[in-house]
């Protein structure tokens, strides 16, 4: 008997929501969800995938920084990427790629990125030299970059 009453109550609530009624503070709507939060993270200048192709064509050392809005350690890694880019701007190209944007799917799959953030250091020929998944400190990235520049 009690289950029957609960079932009838649930059906009434669902029917009301389907009609657009406000039930318990919940209103069903057919409007699109709000836009995702801005991708403007202080100091980061996110670019389009065409920059990836341009970097590969230039034959320069390249650091690809794969991230998403939900990357748990992004705020710890982003400042290191910014510092590295400013210190070695003549020697390397830094590409920032949002793995959750459709434009970057090809690049994410090409480099078999499974975790965010992921940083991949490529040599002048585009070959992967080093990969870091999750948090990595500036000193570690800088050491690998310096070794590649000095090679």
Helix fraction, binned, reads 25-40%
The N- to C-terminal Cα distance equals: 79 Å
The CATH topology annotation of the largest domain reads as Glutaredoxin
Would you list the SSEs in sequence order as H and E?
Answer: HEEHEHEHEEH
The biggest beta sheet, please? 4 strands, mixed
| Mean pLDDT over the full residue set | 76
Give the overall shape, derived from the CA principal axes.
elongated
According to CATH, the homologous superfamily of the largest domain is: Glutaredoxin
Structural class: alpha+beta
Q: Assign the CATH architecture of the largest domain.
A: 3-Layer(aba) Sandwich
- Our estimate of the beta-strand percent is 15-25%
**Computed Rg:** 23 Å
At the first level of CATH, the class of the largest domain is Alpha Beta
Integer tally of domains? 2
Number of helices: 5
Number of strands: 6
Order of neighbouring strands in the sheet with most strands: 4-3-5-6
The low-confidence parts are 32-46
């Amino acid at each position: 008997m009690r289950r029957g009453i609960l079932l009838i109550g649930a059906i009434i609530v669902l029917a009301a929501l389907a009609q657009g009624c406000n039930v318990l503070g919940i209103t069903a709507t057919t409007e699109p969800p709000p836009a995702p939060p801005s991708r403007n993270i202080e100091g980061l200048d996110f670019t389009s995938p065409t920059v990836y192709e341009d970097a590969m064509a230039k034959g320069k050392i390249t650091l690809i920084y794969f991230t998403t809005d939900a990357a748990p350690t992004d705020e710890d890694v982003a400042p290191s990427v910014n510092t590295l880019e400013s210190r070695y701007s003549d020697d390397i190209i830094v590409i920032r790629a949002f793995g959750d944007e459709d434009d970057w799917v090809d690049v994410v799959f090409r480099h078999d990125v499974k975790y965010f953030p992921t940083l991949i250091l490529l040599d002048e020929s585009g070959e992967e030299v080093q990969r870091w998944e999750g948090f990595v400190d500036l000193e570690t990235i800088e050491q690998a970059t310096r070794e590649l520049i000095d090679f």
